[in-house]
Design a protein that fits this description.
It contains five helices and no strands. It is mainly α and about 170 residues long. Helix 2 packs antiparallel against helix 3. The chain is globular, with a radius of gyration of 16 Å.
Length: about 170
């Protein structure tokens, strides 16, 4: 940390060095946390999908969001809405798992809307149509439960993790 007490990376940008849990929530300094995703990693679409699915399956949608965000920022312009939509789905699941029904439902729907232009297509084998349906259905359930109910029993990130590449029929 620098003299002001703000965490900075080697380039001087503000970074929070506090450890994080699997849903990206900050933990007290010195507490064991989940290893953070490195930022700015350029991956192939195959690597992006594989790493994001691994993180989703492990109940770490916040970290999957960071993988999608890297693809969104580094990929071709024509694919940015795909990766941005997937990042929004992951953040929506993160909010729902943290007990934030309002934010979770909003981001799940926003992600589904972003993915709509890819409906009927399976870019990189991603089952976009199924993800849109999953996001809308989960958003409805989360919204119906409400913030108070979700604080007591948040969404299980592992049980609700979507399958990015469902088998083709």
């Amino acid at each position: 940390m620098e003299e002001t007490g703000r965490d900075r990376d080697i380039e001087g940008r503000a970074r929070n060095a506090r450890p994080r849990d699997g849903l990206g929530r900050p933990l007290p300094y010195g507490a064991p946390g989940v290893e953070r995703q490195p930022e700015g990693v350029v991956r192939t679409p195959e690597e992006t999908v594989r790493e994001a699915q691994r993180l989703l399956d492990a109940g770490m949608p916040f970290h999957a969001h960071e993988v999608f965000e890297d693809a969104w920022k580094s990929g071709p312009v024509a694919e940015r809405e795909l990766w941005r939509g997937l990042a929004q789905l992951a953040v929506g699941l993160t909010h729902a798992a943290r007990g934030n029904a309002t934010g979770g439902a909003r981001l799940l729907r926003r992600g589904a809307t972003a993915l709509a232009e890819f409906a009927g297509v399976r870019p990189y084998g991603i089952g976009v149509d199924g993800l849109i349906g999953w996001a809308r259905e989960l958003a409805g359930r989360v919204e119906a439960a409400g913030d108070e109910a979700l604080r007591g029993k948040p969404v299980d990130a592992i049980a609700e993790a979507p399958c990015l590449r469902p088998p083709t029929r």
